[in-house]
Amino acid sequence: MLSSLRTIVQEVNSARSLSEVLGIIVKEVRDAMSAGVCSVYLFDEADQSYVLMATEGLRQESIGKVRMAMREGLVGLVAAKEEPLNLQDADQHPNFAYFEETGEAPFHSFLGVPIIHHRKVLGVLVLQQETRRRFASEEEAFVVTVCAQLSGAIAHAEATGALRQLASAGRGKSKEAVFPGIPSSSGVGIGRVVLVTSSSDLKMVPERLTDNPSAEVKLFREALKATKQDMRNLGNGLSGKLSAEEFALFEVYIRLLDDRALINEVISAIKLGQAAPSAWSTVILKHVRTFQKMDDTYLRERAADVNDLGVRVLGYLQAKDKDRVPMPRRIVLVGEDLSATALADIPVHRLVGIISLKGSSNSHMAIVGRALGIPTVMGAINLPWAELEGQELIVDGSTGDVISRATRSVRRHYVQRQREEKLFNKDLEKLRDTPCHTPDGIRFSLWVNTGLRQDTARSLKSGAEAVGLFRTEIPFLMRASFPTEDEQIEIYREQLSDFAPRPVTMRTLDIGGDKDLPYFPIEEENPFLGWRGIRISLDHPEIFLVQIRAMLRASEGINNLRIMLPMISNVPELDRALQLIERAYQELTQEEGYMIKRPLIGAMIEVPAAVYQVKEIGRRVDFMSVGTNDLTQYLLAVDRNNPRVADLYHTLHPSVLRALKQIYDQASSVNCQLSICGEMAGDPLSTVILLGLGYETFSMSASSLLRVKSILLNVSRKDAKLLSKKALKMSSSKEIITFLAQSLEQPDVVKLLKTTSPKPRADSTKLIA
């Protein structure tokens, strides 16, 4: 059975669609077990039933028609108990339900095993035999193992929409559907989907149709020609370094791309209506599976070569395809794991919504969404993204809901929400020039976090007093290679000039974690605890010094630069970074003759180790800024990009508040300037607590600035201190949030904290992750 299991796993992993996966499972498992029947029943969220989705041994016409309620029949019992059921006389069991249309009358033995993924029952795999017998324990273990493999494929099908598409067959027109995610940037966006997919994964190519097969065939032939030329160039470039046998592989690749059968198979699929990328990936994956099933080890290993060749052609197809497809007027950007690089090819002025299947409200993409003021939903793991290209979606960044196929009344509701929020924001704009003082006269400062040139106008319009964080990694992310010193000078001088004479705090390159440069990949098992931030800069002084020189030269004559160092975890690395900055400054001023005012240098406090060394760090720098995003992540041991643990991540956790209190007290004891620049600073509730802890300088996205200003204008330092003192004694973030919401029930504050009232939709299908 081990070889059968290996075959099943290989075929499932390379299958192009869910229906193909299920077909492989029922056929291979039935053959391996010598059973009469193998069937798969999957749970349909829409009508809360288990549906026969694939079978070998029962009548094929019953597929999609046999449905059992949640606790109906033996299938429902297996799912409810979440454990295998092994019977030799299934028809004698009180839960037995007979379906004549399946032709199952001759079968007596029954083995049902639940298909479970992350504690959720997705379906049941069933084996049946005519002989009355209990299946052996070894057979049961085999089926349990198969179900564990199958669960991942089905969970992926949920995310791509294939499961919902199959399960809804025969139910008529699909209703409006609401897919929940994590609210990450408030507001409502209504637009058409532009998908961001990986060109390195053939299985992730969305199913797209074409009404112009001739153009798709032409595109396919051009991609083949370009790939063959690449192979020739690569082979010629390595000809002196490879053995004759290795060099011959390049000719094998080229011959495969010339294979008439392969080419005709793809062209036939295109003529049947598939777009070129979809047709190519379908055909290549079929050939990959053929190689994987071969007994000969050498031939089986060639599957990887075929897959690699498929990826190379796909890269050309998708690049050309992207150039030909016109962008919608209002874009909702959708991807499995979006990063800031996805914005490189998108006209940002048309962007009205961002949705990522992975990540959380503190992922880098969510932060960028807030900076741009674009409604953003992260962790929408059930969204059928692969089938959505070109469709209209409603993105509710305040609740985390994504709505597809919205009814007219629901769409009108969200359009009205947009109008209300626009009016509300217009009211907030009246506060722009209001002095930043609490009712009892405490002066507070509101700074802005930026990273894109588009942020500048919005930041100044919101009344930002300074830039508390300029994310220098974003311009790096938008390029195909490291920007030169002159290119960086241009970027930094624009930012410094736009905000002059206001101070601009530029954080040195902070890559790693969830911010990988496409041209400087970092492969690590745990990137957030690995090589990132200042660690990379110190290991690559040639990158760090170029950036510091660019910042210093850009500031000449403007004199509003502040430099901030990220991810400081010990004093020696801080000392080393300060030495390198001093070296760059001396070279420019003493050796090269630049007239540069010495900038203030600061450090971020964002790892627990730094919390306990605030005094030592504060004595060495001019200012410190608390990065609450990473500090919360490390204190709570919660990956901020993981939607499965997103509910454990909260900046109002008692441990985080106590750490912030300690940081403030220690910084004050050495008279070091202190600000807070994490996303917590842009949350109106949190800023009340921060004000009470002593913080007076807050740096946030431009979209949050006037909201925070509105609440701080209405809360005195005296009241904030009382609230923070009580909050520090509480034992959970839930308790603290409830306490704050109840304590701040002033009309103006309530309006600010609750500007939306999502309308319930009784006529829609809510798909819960």
UniProtKB/TrEMBL annotation:
Assigned EC number: 2.7.3.9
Compartmental location: Cytoplasm
Catalytic activity: L-histidyl-[protein] + phosphoenolpyruvate = N(pros)-phospho-L-histidyl-[protein] + pyruvate
Keyword set includes Kinase: yes
GO MF terms, alphabetically ordered: kinase activity; metal ion binding; phosphoenolpyruvate-protein phosphotransferase activity
Cofactor(s) the protein needs: Mg(2+)
Keyword vocabulary terms for this entry: Cytoplasm, Kinase, Magnesium, Metal-binding, Phosphotransferase system, Pyruvate, Sugar transport, Transferase, Transport
A biological-process GO annotation: phosphoenolpyruvate-dependent sugar phosphotransferase system
Recorded GO CC terms: cytoplasm
PANTHER family: PHOSPHOENOLPYRUVATE-DEPENDENT PHOSPHOTRANSFERASE SYSTEM, PHOSPHOENOLPYRUVATE-PROTEIN PHOSPHOTRANSFERASE
Protein name: phosphoenolpyruvate--protein phosphotransferase
Species for this entry: SAR92 clade bacterium
The encoding gene: ptsP
